[in-house]
Amino acid sequence: MKHLLILLIISFVLPTNAQDVAILKYNGGGDWYANPTAVPNLIEFANTNIKTNISKNPQTVAVGSEDLFSFPILFMTGHGNILFSEDEAENLKNYLISGGFLHISDNYGLDKFLRKELKKVFPTLELQEIPSNHPIYNQTFKFPNGIPKIHEHDKKRAQGFGIFYQGRLVLFYDYETDLSDGWEDAIIHNDPKNVREKALKMGANIIEYAFKN
């Protein structure tokens, strides 16, 4: 009964028209704070090119905090360990099934930790590769071949994975591409302009999709 009451409350808390975004802070020792210029740059790009009105300075929110429910989309990245407590996993699940959206960018080294912790959030659901005809690749910017390759890690193809809950995509995970590196200031990785633009366009698509769905 307690969990039902929580779900009923948060279904009204999560704003349907808010346009602020947040960076997800997690425990375990991984660098959740990696790529500090990435999300601000993406916000600037989205506000300019897809006419969003997002606050230019993203907030930070802990995975176990009720503040999650103030944001329609959360961004998560890092290189290392992730650890969700039982309560944190439940809080993140409640956020996602109540209308929230999580984008995770593997900054290299995140994958093996992430997959284990996501099973705490959705024990019966699996990450699925998102096909190139999915709407997330076909918002303002078109990616007919699916997720673009931005950075090389292990000479594997870029993949976009997702978790669907009752038919809705609630989580998008970019793997072997590192979109968030492509969003950072140009001087940091010295990416060519066209590579950074691809990363920012795909990021804008993710925001646009999350706001619509």
Automatic annotation (TrEMBL):
Record's signal peptide: 1-18
Annotated keywords: Signal
Residue ranges that the Swiss-Prot or TrEMBL entry lists as coiled coil: none
InterPro entries (alphabetical): DUF4159 (IPR025297)
Domain of life: Bacteria
Regions that span the bilayer: none
Origin organism lineage: Bacteria, Pseudomonadati, Bacteroidota, Flavobacteriia, Flavobacteriales
DUF4159 domain mapped to chain residues: 21-211
Protein name: DUF4159 domain-containing protein
Pfam families: DUF4159
